[in-house]
Structures are given as structure tokens and as C-alpha cells.
Amino acid sequence: MTDYKKRIKVLAVDDEYDLCWAFETRFKKEIFDIVTVRNGEAAIEMLKKNKYPIIILDSKLPGIDGFEAAKIIKIIDPDTYIIIFTGYYDREDKEIQEGLKSGLFYDFLCKPFEFDDVKRMIKKVIKENISKNS
Questions:
Q1: Could you tell me if residue 1 is inside a domain?
Q2: Residue 18 domain-assigned (yes or no)
Q3: What does the angle CA 77 – CA 111 – CA 79 come to, to the nearest 5 degrees?
Q4: Domain containing residue 38
Q5: Which of 13, 27, 119, 121 could lock 43 by a disulfide, CB 3.0 to 4.6 Å apart?
Q6: CATH number of the domain encompassing residue 43
Q7: What is the reported pTM?
Q8: 3-class secondary structure, 61
């Protein structure tokens, strides 16, 4: 049985204030704690200070884009599970396929997405990967 007393930290990265607010609001009562930042640089700085086993990352960000941020994140913590989301690519695009095949991304979401899909993905990572290693 999984012990959810140890809450998993999730970092969500998106430049849209409303989406960050929605992540924080929608997931308040879940088995994980979600923190949001608005760009790739901030995500990298947060990861240097805290462990975030799961990062939900927009592909298009000001400054360092999501693809470059994902590469840096994996250097800092190779065990981080990254769920990339975007309105600019679909699952069949070369960049997404390469990221999924290489293990850079755990999974992919296309905008607009349902928050229930995000929640299911996070819980799947926790159940299948993180809780086994705790």
C-alpha cells in the first residue's frame, strides 16, 4: 500500500498566469503539492533548491524554452519525470517523439487539456515510479 503521508512536490511551469493559478487551485486537495513558476529559468532555480520528482512543463516559454529547460532539468536531476505540454506540437511531431523515446519526457499533453488528464498522469507517475522507490 502506498503511503501518501509523504506528499510529492510537483512543479508546474507556464508563462500564463491564469494557467498557473488554475494548477494551484485545482490540485489543492490532491495527494501532491503543486508549485508554479512562469519561466524555464525559474524552474531551474527552483530545482537547484528543492527536489521536484514531477515537473509539468510548457514547451513555449520566454527565455529558455521548455525543450532546453527539460534538458537542463535532466542534467540537474535525471530522476525527474517531465510531462511536457503545448499548443504548438502534437504527439506525432519529431521533437515530441524524440523526447518521449529518449526519456527526456515521461509523457505529453496537447493544449487545451483537461485537468483530470493532468491529475491522472501525475498519479500514474507516483504510483508506478515514485512510490516504488520511497
A1: no
A2: yes
A3: 10
A4: 8-125
A5: 13
A6: 3.40.50.2300
A7: 0.92
A8: coil
Residues 6+ apart with CB under 8 A from 78: none
| Residue 66 domain flag | yes
Q: Which amino acid is at 38?
A: R
Q: Into how many domains does the chain fold? A: 1
User: Phi and psi of 62, rounded to 5°?
Assistant: -70, 145
Tens-digit pLDDT profile for residues 12-69: 999 999 999 999 999 988 989 999 999 999 999 999 999 999 999 999 999 999 999 9
Residue type, 41: E
- Average pLDDT of the chain to the nearest whole number: 92
Q: What would the 3-class secondary structure string for 10-59 be? A: EEEECCCHHHHHHHHHHCCCCCEEEEEECCHHHHHHHHHHCCCCEEEEEC
Task: Please state the rounded mean pLDDT for residues 3-18.
Answer: 85
